[in-house]
Design brief:
Number of domains of chain A: 3
Distance between the termini of chain A: 47 Å
Structural class of chain A: mainly beta
CATH class of the largest domain in chain B: Mainly Alpha
Order of helices and strands of chain B: EEEEHEEEEHEEEHHHH
Largest sheet of chain B: 6 strands, antiparallel
Radius of gyration of chain B: 18 Å
Oligomer: heterodimer
Strand order of the largest sheet of chain B: 1-2-3-4-6-5
Number of helices of chain A: 4
Shape of chain A: globular
Largest sheet of chain A: 7 strands, antiparallel
Helix content of chain B: 25-40%
Radius of gyration of chain A: 24 Å
CATH superfamily of the largest domain in chain B: Transferase(Phosphotransferase) domain 1
CATH architecture of the largest domain in chain B: Orthogonal Bundle
CATH topology of the largest domain in chain B: Transferase(Phosphotransferase), domain 1
Strand order of the largest sheet of chain A: 10-2-3-4-5-8-12
Chain lengths: 421, 270
């Protein structure tokens, strides 16, 4: 648990959601800051959020590093205590030693042992003084700052009580030569950080072991005799399907959003001229805003004729099942096999009544083709893009089409600024 | 997908390789002694299944197996396929001596095709009455057995979160456009699929003329923004039934698959 987060005054951006605190240098792009903030917001409530966000960002960086010279860091709780992902010219002071990525620029996923606090800032900054009774305490949000001091309530709040070796690296960045990558652990904060080569391979004793008790890592069980099932009539406990199209399509657990009701009580997106559910006209002058559980926002139709219902978000990629958002249940995996598709290539998230796609810095990129558009447009990495109805999205060579009945006439849809290809 | 010649699947002895379906390979097999059956069709799908996926798959098949209808395909066993070359899942079912409506062993005349779809409609109704929507009906799901046509289960390799998969673009016309808008599979979407399947069984002409040449991106637009066109060579009685299944308003379609089965009791059709 965090006792407080002291924001260091100066240039840069400090982000905190739940147990995750991040810092980005002034040179960070708005897209990068948005990516860090959204990731922290998603994983901040998790008791293992530090491990999850570090793994998540590490996966992204393994595919492509769109801003290699920008310093940023994320810190949060892990099973062993605290874990950080450090990128570029950034440094962490744990009270006894410095930890920084090496080579520089590069990145590092490391365990941190606060003694008693964790200080994050740009490389070369002097050791900050810890002020126990400071008024600076960021509880949540995104604020300006040159760094932060994270003060835990206890050294290791989650998981086992074993104390990690500060800086023990779990995964490291690539380098130009096949030399071992090391964590820089120096007692002198004024020491010059040397540049050495790196190795894509993680150290043999440093890769986290898969959890054998995890239900997802168990192999399929033995065969199931379905003839016996039929003979016993097991599973025949469901009520018959409703006649016709079925009941209202509100999704259990879906977010509550603002909308308008049709005369028959179905929740619709504001601005809809008629009910999507029953086609009853919704006169503008008769509509009033209410809140209710959001229905599905449409579907994604992949080019292998698989239909994915958009009642929640997806992580698109060749193997997104290990993505933190998927493992934490916040998104489902949308697996697309094919050349050049990254492990976690892009996010497709639902937000209010919108569906938003964000490329994760994939090497082959994510492109969109909107109705009546003359060309495919390549999205900038980490820049969210609201999908218009009927938009085709190309993840490398695979195409997914966004289909939705929620078409608001002349809707003013905020858009990013994609690069045309 | 690479289809390999195998001598066995689990402890089922392969007798012959059958035409593959969208999701994997199929074999005619001799069943092991532990089962009181002689032959079975064994479908192998190379799909990675973790514990959660396995649970979802077995729940789906358990619900399917529990449906009491002789128009629903008998499922024998599902299990992990431990083939060292490519692990996956196998599903053993009753054998299909007549093949599939998409690929019959012997050529079927028009009335036999209508009859087969009508029989499967009865099985579909039983499925719905048991609270299960199919979501993947195509001509590949109409299995021709010794006791007539039966309804096969949906594809095994349906990804987590996926609503449906028809397996091939040619079969995309069996998708109710409502599904493409986020609706869940239901009685009415299954009725649409069966109507479209009947059209496929009776005509070489695509329901959406031109879709056979479409790229994926335009096929979707064609389904969403145009209406299917029924082959005028299909007999009026049968064409009326198909047309009713393909009504854009679900309320205008046959209310139940049983109603559809009744309407397909057409002498000498098409």
């Amino acid at each position: 648990m965090i006792d407080r987060v002291e924001v260091t005054r100066g240039s840069g951006t400090v982000i905190r959601y739940g147990g995750i605190v991040a810092w980005a240098a002034p040179s960070a792009s708005p897209a990068l800051i948005s990516f860090l903030a959204q990731s922290a917001r998603n994983l901040g409530p998790s008791p293992l959020g530090g491990h999850q966000i570090a793994g998540h960002i590490g996966d992204v960086l393994s595919d492509r590093d769109p801003e290699p010279n920008v310093a940023f860091a994320v810190v949060g709780p892990s099973e062993q205590g605290w874990e950080a992902l450090l990128h570029g010219p950034v440094q962490v002071w744990d009270g006894a030693r410095w930890v920084a990525p090496n080579p520089k620029p590069g990145w590092l996923q490391a365990a941190i042992d606060p003694q008693p606090a964790i200080t994050v800032g740009s490389a070369g900054a002097p050791t900050p003084a810890l002020v126990p009774d400071t008024v600076w305490d960021l509880e949540a949000g995104v604020v300006p700052g040159a760094g932060f001091v994270l003060v835990p309530t206890v050294a290791a709040s989650y998981g086992p009580s074993s104390t990690p070796v500060s800086g023990a690296h779990l995964r490291t960045a690539t380098g130009p030569r096949n030399e071992p990558t090391t964590v820089l652990v120096v007692p002198d904060p004024t020491a010059v950080l040397p540049v050495v080569g790196g190795d894509r391979r993680p150290g043999p004793d440093l890769e986290p072991e898969p959890d054998p008790d995890s239900p997802r890592s168990r192999p399929p069980q033995g065969s199931l005799n379905l003839l016996a099932v039929r003979a016993e009539g097991a599973g025949a406990t469901r009520p018959a399907l409703p006649v016709g199209r079925g009941p209202d399509r509100s999704v259990p657990g879906a977010p509550v959003v603002a909308g308008v009701l049709c005369a028959r009580g179905h929740l619709n997106r504001p601005g809809m001229p008629a009910c999507v559910r029953c086609s009853t006209p919704i006169p503008f002058e008769a509509s009033y805003t209410v809140t209710g559980t959001r229905p599905a926002l449409g579907a994604l139709v992949a080019d292998d004729a698989t239909v994915y219902r958009l009642d929640r978000g997806y992580v698109v990629g060749s193997d997104p099942s290990r993505d933190p958002a998927v493992r934490s249940g916040q998104a489902l995996p949308l697996i697309l096999k094919g050349a050049d598709i990254a492990t976690s290539h892009a996010d497709v998230r639902t937000h209010d009544w919108d569906v938003v796609v964000t490329d994760r810095g994939s090497a082959s990129g994510t492109c969109i083709f909107e109705l009546n558009s003359p060309n495919w447009l390549r999205l900038r990495p980490y820049e969210p893009r609201v999908l218009r109805p009927g938009t085709h999205v190309a993840f490398a060579q695979r195409i997914v089409t966004f289909v939705t009945p929620w078409v608001v006439p002349d809707a003013a849809v905020p858009q990013g600024d994609p690069q045309e290809t | 997908m690479e289809v390999r010649l195998r001598s066995s699947v689990a402890d089922y002895e392969v007798i012959a390789e059958l035409p593959s379906v969208g999701g994997g390979a199929r074999y005619l097999c001799r069943t092991p002694d532990r089962l009181e059956l002689s032959t079975a069709t064994v479908m192998v799908t190379e799909v990675a299944v973790d514990a959660a996926g396995w649970q979802a798959l077995t729940e789906r098949l358990t619900r399917y197996s529990a449906v009491s209808s002789d128009r629903v395909m008998s499922l024998i066993e599902v299990g992990p396929d431990l083939d060292p070359i490519g692990a996956g899942v196998y599903l053993a079912t009753e054998s299909a001596p007549g093949g599939w409506l998409s690929d019959p062993v012997e050529d079927l005349d028009g009335p036999s095709r209508v009859q087969a779809v009508g029989q499967v409609a009865a099985g579909l109704h039983a499925l719905h009455e048991s609270g299960v929507a199919h979501g993947g009906i195509t001509a590949r799901a109409v299995v021709l057995t010794g006791r007539g046509a039966v309804l096969a289960p949906p594809p095994l390799d349906l990804p987590v979160g996926a609503l449906t998969r028809v397996g091939a673009w040619r079969d995309l016309v069996t998708l109710d456009p409502d599904l493409l808008s986020g609706e869940e599979s239901s009685r009415s979407s299954d009725v649409w699929a069966l109507g479209a399947t009947l059209h496929i069984a009776l005509s070489d002409r695509p329901l959406y003329p031109g879709i056979e040449k479409d790229a994926a991106v335009t096929a979707i637009q064609r389904i969403l923004y145009t209406r299917p066109e029924i082959d005028p060579d299909i007999s009026p009685d049968v064409a009326d039934v198909i047309r009713s299944c393909l009504e854009p308003d679900p309320a205008a379609r046959p209310t139940t698959a049983e109603e559809l089965a009744d309407r397909l009791q057409i002498p000498d059709a098409p």
